[in-house]
């Protein structure tokens, strides 16, 4: 072991080894087959960091070897940092041993030394939460005078150095790797009423099926994490078969296996769970939650990925000038659309925010200062049989209105008003005041019809508010005797 002046021993240079720890991959066949799903007897070890997916836990091996046969590595410290596209995370390990710089730090310092032809190693890990380029930064420092031999109390006079210190040596290595998403998650949201939404999730294996380079995944769990005040329930086919009674094809289809390019669709029903949420309803733009998908690779490596936040969609009502003729081609109906909730939310928002002059569309609460919604309407009617239907009328404006509900026969087809065509509702208070009235309808011919022709009239100002089609109903023929 060599020495410069007897006060310290020169340190050997350590050799750094960094490897990613991962399961072996299945060896690919010479002719890739989409129908071959059995496990091969051959396994291959990755020659690089390999394919790394978001949701996995990145695990790496850090090793320091002393290849010198005569000198030892002294005062070793290895620190690792994982740099993502937006943040930087320290990855602590037993090899990280900060070199002291003050007398207080020196008291508790225990140096890490590596004897000749020996080595030390450690494991570091970190869950991956972002896609994009990541950098594993490894810094190795070693050498320097043993802190126990330093004399902090001695102060050298100008031009004198009573103690010769060995400088610390530094070695930095950077390992870049790309993190990708193994799955593509696409959301489709539909309104199911004032306090219900249906969320359809399409989960696709994003790896490329070309040239057999893609790898299959198994979806082990798919959950929807609802926002506070909401609840989510998976909608799926109910089967009475047990696993022992299912065929091999049925078991495979139910396993959640996704080969490259394949996809599965999951359906969730999101409801208002708390009393406050149920009273308010679910309005357009409200956060519903996000999907959490857990998957496994062929060798059991697990990962979790979350979708973007899912929001309640806008009502599909046409805000342009509506046709004055029946059956104007619009497929929108008020029942189940959540229009009344959207108008209330829009009115409340505009009352507390300054409106922009650049708005090109008419706000909902200006287009529909009063809304009409059927309460539990029938899905079927019979020709010639009249039925009473209750309608909820809500005043969203900031002033009380003396309202009259009108069902105009020329604007109705298939299902028409039966009896008196108007109802006086009296004065309905502002900002959410409501009234319920009953209207008698009768079906004229069989078929599927929209019930429309509804107008709300303010008797004081003469203002008319045309309502969209209120509901859809299937009309059946006469009952057989």
TrEMBL record:
Lineage top rank: taxon: Eukaryota
A GO cellular-component term linked to this record: TRAPPIII protein complex
Domain Trafficking protein particle complex subunit 13 C-terminal: residue ranges: 383-475
Transmembrane feature ranges: none
Coiled-coil residue windows: none
Region annotation Disordered: where it falls in the sequence: 85-108, 139-167
Domain Trafficking protein particle complex subunit 13 N-terminal: 36-179
Pfam families according to UniProt: TRAPPC13_C, TRAPPC13_N
Protein family membership: Belongs to the TRAPPC13 family.
Protein name: Trafficking protein particle complex subunit 13
Natural source organism: Chaetoceros tenuissimus
């Amino acid at each position: 072991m060599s020495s410069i002046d007897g006060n310290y021993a020169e340190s050997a240079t350590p050799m750094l080894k960094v490897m990613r720890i991962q399961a072996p991959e299945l060896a690919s066949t010479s002719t890739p087959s989409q129908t071959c799903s059995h496990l091969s007897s051959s396994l291959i070890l990755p020659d690089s960091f390999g394919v790394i997916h978001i949701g996995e836990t990145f695990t790496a091996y850090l090793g320091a070897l002393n290849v010198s046969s005569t000198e030892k590595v002294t005062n070793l410290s290895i620190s690792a940092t994982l740099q993502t596209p937006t943040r930087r995370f320290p990855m602590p390990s037993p090899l990280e041993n900060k070199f002291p710089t003050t007398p207080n730090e020196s008291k508790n310092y225990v140096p890490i030394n590596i004897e000749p032809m020996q080595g030390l190693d450690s494991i570091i890990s970190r869950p991956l939460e972002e896609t994009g380029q990541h950098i594993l930064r490894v810094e190795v420092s070693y050498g320097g005078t043993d802190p126990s031999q330093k004399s902090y109390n001695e102060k050298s006079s100008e031009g004198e150095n009573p103690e010769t210190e060995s400088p610390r040596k530094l070695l930095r290595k950077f390992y870049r790797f790309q993190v990708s998403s193994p799955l593509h998650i696409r959301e489709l949201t539909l309104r199911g009423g004032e306090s219900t939404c249906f969320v359809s999730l399409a989960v696709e294996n994003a790896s490329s099926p070309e040239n057999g380079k893609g790898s299959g995944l198994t979806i082990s769990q798919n959950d929807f994490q609802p926002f506070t005040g909401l609840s989510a329930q998976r909608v799926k086919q109910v089967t009475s078969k047990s696993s022992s009674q299912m065929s091999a094809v049925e078991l495979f289809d139910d396993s959640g296996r996704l080969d490259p390019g394949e996809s599965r669709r999951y359906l969730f029903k999101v409801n208002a769970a708390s009393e406050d949420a149920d009273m308010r309803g679910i309005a357009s733009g409200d956060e519903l939650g996000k999907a959490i998908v857990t998957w496994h690779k062929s060798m059991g490596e697990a990962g979790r990925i979350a979708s973007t936040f899912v929001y309640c969609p806008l009502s599909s009502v046409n805000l342009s000038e509506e046709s004055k003729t029946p059956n104007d081609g619009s497929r929108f109906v008020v029942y189940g659309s959540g229009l009344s909730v959207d108008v209330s939310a829009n009115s409340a928002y505009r009352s507390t925010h300054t409106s922009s002059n650049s708005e090109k569309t008419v706000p909902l609460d200006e287009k529909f200062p009063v809304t009409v919604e059927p309460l539990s309407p029938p899905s079927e009617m019979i020709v010639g049989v009249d039925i009473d239907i209750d309608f909820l009328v809500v005043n969203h404006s900031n002033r009380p209105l003396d309202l009259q509900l009108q069902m105009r026969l020329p604007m109705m087809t298939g299902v028409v008003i039966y009896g008196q065509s108007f109802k006086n509702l009296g004065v309905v208070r502002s900002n959410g005041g409501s009234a319920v009235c009953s209207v008698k309808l009768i079906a004229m011919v069989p078929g599927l019809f929209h019930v429309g022709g509804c107008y709300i009239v303010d008797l004081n100002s003469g203002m008319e508010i045309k309502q969209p089609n209120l509901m859809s109903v299937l009309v059946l023929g006469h009952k057989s005797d």
